[in-house]
Write the structure tokens for this entry.
Amino acid sequence: MIPRYSRPEMAALWTDQAKYDRWLQVEVAAVQAWADAGVIPHKEAEAITAKAAFQLADIDRYQTETHHEMTAFLRSVNDHVGEAGRWVHLGLTSSDVWDTATALQLRDAATLLERELERLLAVLEARAQTHRRTLMVGRTHGVHAEPTTFGLKLLVWVAEVRRHQTRLTEAKRMVSVGKLSGAVGTHATVPPAVEEKVCARLHLTPAAAANQIIQRDRHAQFVSTLALIAASLEKFAMEIRHLQRTEVREVEEPFLPGQTGSSAMPHKRNPEKCERICGLARVLRGHATTAFENVALWHERDISHSSTERLIFPDACGLLDYMLDLFTWVMENLVVFPERMRENLDGAGGLLYSQRVLLALVEAGMQREEAYALVQRHAMQTWKSNIPLLDLLLADQTVQQHLGADALEECFNPAYYLRHVDETFARLGL
């Protein structure tokens, strides 16, 4: 994680200090479990628990000799524990400690991300409520479609974030798993009862079956969940970018006093925060691809996944934490222009109401194909001439035979599209 896109609390979970702290937690919990099993004398287990420590500088120095991070770590621990250190790492393999400790890091990171998702959800819900009846143009293919409300647009985001909460809870559960079953997972050197006691102390679930490692489908699910949340943030941010275009200008991300948008053009007010979110989402998707590549390893384990996970786990967690915080700030301070929304709505020549006219004609007795062709013909004329669709329809004798002027004009009332807004909000408890 580079500092530019890091926040202190999340970054602190992925330092070497934090990693080795969790390695030590696992080692101490294993010593205590062995003591409970009667293998390690309680007096020596208590001494290890009291003295267990490490020095980062020593680990680094030992690693230049051992070329093995775990043995360097254990040597540093033994420096502090002394003679009782013979019991440290009893029956364990490196991945027993590493993978179980990583589960602690991922679980703690997920807890922070859950908090940030909750913050974003609260902001989205509040802003959706504020704008539940703020009329605006709905667009499909980037082209005006029918009226909607800005609140409904945000309500779609609310539902999506709630789904992500469910996904993240499940992904957190999936990686909150410990494994202490020895070199190839047979429990030959670490009985299941010891593993279970260690995991209970760490509030983890023991892996039901494992080889030398916790299987990486779990981690792929976790990272892909983070990437999916990031994809939604990109989607939300891209919508703001589109709505901020000069030709549209219905919303605008915050632009602070003293902020500049261009080194050359003083007038620029760019959606650069939302653009940043879109760019970082691409990075996270790449990490998900790497996590999937880590699922297939040789036999009981190889080490090809290890180097990538040193990068993708802290980076994915850190980036999403940063993105959630940034987008929450954007939404808290988003500038909304309801008057501009109404201008765009009213400036489309009435084309947005073509379906209402079509349905009214059908209900008045016309065949649908005939009514569609009639309305489309006048709509195409409106596109070419900018003559309002209502004016063209009022002058059409066929339309007059089926609809009076009042009924036709009512088809162009945008309030019609607000009829079920409250029901939709109620589905989400708002």
User: Anything to note?
Assistant: Strands lie at 135-140, 143-149, 177-178, 205-206, 251-252, 335-336. The first strand starts at residue 135 and ends at 140. The first helix runs from residue 8 to 12.
